[in-house]
Amino acid sequence: MCPHTTTILTVDDSSSDFKVLSHFLKSRGFKIVVANNGLSAISLAQKSLPDIILLSIMMPGMDGLETCQRIKSHSKTHNIPIIFMTGNTDIETKIRGFKLGAVDYITKPFEAQEILDRIQIQLQLKQMQHILQRQNKQLQQEIAQRKITEQELRKIQAKERELNYKLEQKVAARTGELVHTTQELEARNQELQRSNAELESFAYAVSHDLQAPLRSIKMFAQLLTQEYQELLQGQPQEYIEYITSSAERMENLIHDLLAYSRAGKNEQTWLPISLEELINTSIRNLEVTIKENQATVNVGNLPTLMVNPTEMTQVFQNLISNGIKFCGKQQPLIEIGAVSDEDNWQIFVKDNGSGIDSKYHQKIFQVFQRLHSEDDYPGTGIGLSICEKIVKHHGGKIWLESLPNQGSTFYFTLPKNLPTLQKPILELKQ
Ligand code: ADP
Known about the structure:
Layout (H helix, E strand, L loop, with lengths): L6 E5 L4 H12 L3 E5 L2 H11 L3 E5 L7 H10 L8 E5 L4 H10 L3 E4 L4 H116 L7 H28 L8 E4 H11 L1 H6 L3 E4 L4 E4 L1 H17 L7 E8 L3 E8 L31 H11 L4 E5 L5 E8 L15
Parallel strand pairs: 1-2, 1-3, 3-4, 4-5, 7-9
Antiparallel strand pairs: 6-8, 9-10, 10-12, 11-12
Bound molecules: adenosine-5'-diphosphate (ADP).
């Protein structure tokens, strides 16, 4: 503690020793407050709150012991260290003084350096006490704060446990529901697959069995024409022609239906093959149609992909022949190309034909759905359904963009890495 900020109260009935002492302490920089008796010491102590009191025991009126007791009994001055200054004091008085709260005794004759040292010790003790008290207070505050935090934490943990419990219950309930729904869906899916398979094999069997009686009808109609040509002139001849053309139409329908039920079941090996090569095969198959209609087919760069060649050739052939067939009044121009993203190739087949209203864009992929009459354009309405089935079988999807009289672009995707789970499928016989 620095002397310049330290106040010392000296209490004595003006003995010469005390005067010398006060003078000495002043010279060392301490601020000195002087009291000549006990009463004025009590009042000055409360007023100036000194850092230390040097108190003489022997004083007229109130002696040093009583003065000490009264200073110590007051809360404001209770903590001020008091050093007794005395001549020769018996041991009992000293003990009483300590009991009353004195911290030290200095006995005459006063030694300046000794007094200074003792004052310094007391001041340091007081300062340390002060620091300890402050730290103690701080610790108490921290403990109180920690207790509050702990309580809050416990509350939060309890809340968290409750929430967790509720959440677990909800998750368990939801999982139960999901498992149930998944099981139901799986069951329905299996049922659907079974009835689909049944329907397809029924369609296949019926179509197949219809072929023989149909061939007989056609054959007998031909026999009638050949053998009774002269008898069957006029209307009978016309009727027989109707029978023949209807039988042919039915034959086409059966042929396409069989193709549809076989599509996606081709057992032929899947090969990494250039799509350009498949398109060239389709173009060769359509050579007559292309020539008759003076159609142009432009083919851009196309990738080599793992596909089922027979099926994929069928897709290109259907889309190219539709583009030529539904050309309207234009000279048919077909453009084929491909773009790719990270996972898929997107193939397009674009024509400059009659176009299709957007309300039919989904419908035309269904079996037997046609937007044109048989008289205008021959066909069975199965070609696009076959395309969709094959593209799906390759893990892709098919769609179109088109507006009436503005041509159509059919798109389909093929994955770059063919899913390994493709089912082996039956060969599509033309
Ligand atoms: P089909 O060609 O035997 O009639 P599809 O399933 O191939 O059967 O086509 C269904 C219908 O969709 C066609 O009848 C036609 O009305 C329409 N369509 C298909 N492709 C085109 C096209 N490129 N331009 C205009 N219309 C088309």
